[in-house]
Queue: 2 jobs
Job 1
Amino acid sequence: MAFEYAPAPESRAIVDIKPSYGLFINGEFVDGTGTSFKTVNPANEEVLAEVAEASDADVDEAVKAARRAYTRVWSRMSGAERAKYLYRIARIIQERGRELAVLESIDNGKPIKESRDVDVPIVAAHFFYYAGWADKLQYSGYGSTPLGVAGQVIPWNFPLLMLAWKIAPALACGNTVVLKPAETTPLTALLFAEICQQADLPPGVVNIVTGAGDTGRAIVSHPDVDKVAFTGSTEVGKAIARTVAGTDKKVTLELGGKAANIVFDDAPIDQAVEGIVDGIFFNQGHVCCAGSRLLVQESVADEVLERLKRRMSTLRMGDPLDKNTDVGAINSGEQLMRIRELSQVGDAEGAERWEVACDLPTKGFWFPPTIFTGVSQAHRIAREEIFGPVLSVLTFRTPSEAIEKANNTPFGLSAGVWTDKGSRILSMANRLRAGVVWANTFNKFDPTSPFGGYKESGYGREGGRHGLEGYLKGADS
Ligand code: NAD
C-alpha cells in the first residue's frame, strides 16, 4: 500500500548564503590569492556560491597564523580556559542548529531529518565531550603536551561532523588547526568559522582554507605542520602517508570501508531489515562504515530479501529539505558517475540488480536504492567501495563461513551482527577484523566511543579517550 504525504519542506529562509566566500585566516575572512570555484546544490544543480581556492601562499599564511596563535595564546592557556571556548562553541552550534542543518542539506544533498537529527546533535556533543577533557588531560594516558599546528583535510559525506571530529580534540589538547573542507561541501565549515568569531575564539586558533586536492597537498606537506589528520579515500590516504614518511609529523588516517552486515537465521528479521536499510541507505550510502555487503544466512535469505525489498519500496527519495525524505541526492555528478560505473560492472559480472521503482527528479544527481543478489566474493562490487546506495548480497551457511567472508576484504572499518544469541555476538566480535562491531544495530555514533579502522581503512582512532592520542605528545614527554 502506498502512503501519500503532503510535501513538508523546511524553509531555507533561516540561512544566509553569500554570493562569495573568502578564506578564514587569523580570525578574519580574507580574499585568497588563488582562483575560486563554485559550490552547487546537488539536488537541483543551483550554484550556491563562489568560494576561494587557497593557493600555497594562502596555506602558508594560515599555517603562520596557527603557529602564532599556538605559541602566544593557545598552548599557554590553561585547560579550563580552553574548555570555556569549546563549551561556548558547542552551545552556539546548538543555538544555530537549524541553520547548520539546513545549510548542510543544501550543500551536501542529505535529508534534513538526518542533518537535523543526526549530524548537528553529534557535532555539538563532540564539542561538549572534548571540552570536558581539556582540563583533565593528565588522566588521558597520553600526557598533556600538545603537538602544535594540526593540518586537517576532510571529505564531503559528513562535512560538519568530520570537522567536529577533527577540531574538537585538537583544540581540547591545546593544538591550533588549519582545516580544509571538501571542495563540494565548503559552506558549513565557513559558517563554523563565523561561529568561532561569535565565540570570541582567539584569532588563528582555527583557520579554514577552502580548495581541492592541491590545497590539501599544500597543507599536508607544509613543513611547519606538526600533525596531519585526514579522512577520505584510501588512495589519497596512501599518497599522504608517502608524503609525510621521513618527517616527524604525526599522522592519523580515516579511510574507506566495505563493511559486512551479517544476519543469522535467529535474528529478529524486521529489526534486521531496518538495520540493513539504515546500514546502506543512510546518507545515500556515502558512509565510510556503510554496511555495503549483506551476508545473510542461507536458510533465511529469501525471507530477508522479500521483506527488504518491501521496506525499500517505502523509502521516499527527493527534496533533501522535505522532512519526509529518507534518501536525498548524490553529492556530485562525479560521484554519481562512479556509482553508475561500478554498478554496471556488477551487471557485467552477472549479479542480479533490483532497484526501487520511482520517478527521479529531472535535475540534480540521483541514484535509486539498489541491491545486487547473486554476488560472489570475486565480484568487484563485493570488494570495492561504491560509496552510494548500493547493497551487495551474499549468503553463508555457518558462522565460520560468515567470518571468512566478512574478513575477506582489504578494509576493516566496521561490521554488524544480527542474532538472538549473546554468546555468538561476543565470539563474532572477537573474530571480525573491524574497528567497530555493532550488534543488533548499525551506524550508532557517540563521541565517547573510539572509531577507526584496521588494514586499508587507516590508522589512529577518533572519538573517546583514544581520540586524544593523535593530538598529544605521549605519556613520556
Ligand atoms: P578524497 O580522498 O577524494 O578527498 C578527501 C579530501 O582530501 C578532500 O578534501 C579532497 O579535496 C582532499 N584531497 C584530495 N587529494 C588530496 C591530496 N593529494 N592531498 C591532500 N588532500 C587531498 O575522498 P572523497 O571522495 O572526498 O571521500 C570519500 C572517501 O572518504 C571514501 O573512500 C570514504 O570511505 C572515506 N571516508 C572515510 C571515513 C572514515 O572515518 N574512515 C569517513 C568519511 C569518509
Job 2
Amino acid sequence: MKLRQVTSSAPGKVILIGEHFVVEREPAIALAIDKRVYVTVRKGVKGVRIHSSCYEGEVDLDLNEVEGVKGYFRAIFNSLAEYREIPPLEITIRSEIPPRYGMGSSAATAVALTRAVAAFLGMELDKEEIAKIAYEAERMVHGSPSGIDNTVSTYGGAIIFRRGEGFLRLNVDFSPVALLVAYSGVPKCTKDLVSKVKELKGRYPTIFEPLYHTAGRLAIEAARALEEGDFTAVGELMNINQGLLSALGVSTLRLETLVHKFREAGALGAKLTGAGGGGCVLALVPRERVEKVLMAIKPYSEWIAQVEVCETGVKVEGEGV
Ligand code: PMV
C-alpha cells in the first residue's frame, strides 16, 4: 500500500543542568517539553522541496550543497539515502518552538523529519538510528554537538545524558512544580558560543577543569533530587549551575536580569537554558506561585511560556493513503 502522506512530530527540550559542560563529557539533564515540531511528507515532483515557517521561502535541495540550512537537510537525506533511494518529496515543517531560543528546535526538526521520511518510504528505523541521523544534521549547524538535544527529542521524558556513554531515563513526578521559560530578546548562536567557551577553557585549563568536574557533580546530585521530589534542592542546584555558566562567559545582562527577577518573584531556581549569549531563561516554580511569578516577569520578556515535561519522544502522528 502506497502512503499519500505521513506526519511525524518530535519534542523540543530545555536543559535543566549542564549545558556546555556536557560538550566535554560531563553529565547533564535535559527535559523533553510539550512544544513540538511537526513534519509532513508527501510525494513530490522533482528533488526534495521543503516548506518551513522557520526558514524564509522554500528550500530546494541541491545534492552538492553542504553548508548552512541546506547542508543540515542534506545531511539527513544523505544518511537516509544509505538505506533507500530518495524519490521526489514535498515536505512541510511546522514548529511550535521558535528557532534560536535554546529550546532544541533544530534537533526536533531533524528527528521528526527523519521519522516522517522513513515512515513515508516504508523504512524500518529504530530510535537509535533516528537519533544518529539527527546528530549528523546537528553537526552541520553546531560543529561538535554533545548529542543531548537529538537524544532527548527522540526518546522524550527527563534524561541524564553523558556524551559517548548514552543516557538514563529519570523517573520524576513534576506535578508540584511548573517550568517557565522566558526569552531574553536576543537569538543565540550555539556554534559561536561553544567555540568561545572552548577558547576560554583552553587558556585557563587548570581553573576550568575543577569547574567542569563540579558541573558534572551538579547533574548527578540534581538527578537524585529530581527522583526524590526534592525540588528545593533542584532549584538550588540550578542556581549554582547558573553561576558556573556565568563563569564560562555565556550569560548576559538580559539573562541575568531575568534570572534574578524569577528568583525574587518566588522561583525555586532560575538559569539560562541552552547555549546562552541570548535565548531563554528557565525557572522552576511551585505551581501555586505560577500566576504571581508570571506577573512579575511579564515586563521583562516579550515571550514567556509555561512548559510541561513530555514523556513521548518522536512519533508518527498520522498516515494517509
Ligand atoms: O541552545 P541549544 O538548544 O543549541 O543547546 C546547546 C547546548 C550545548 O550544551 C551548549 C551544546 C551541546 O551540543 O550540548
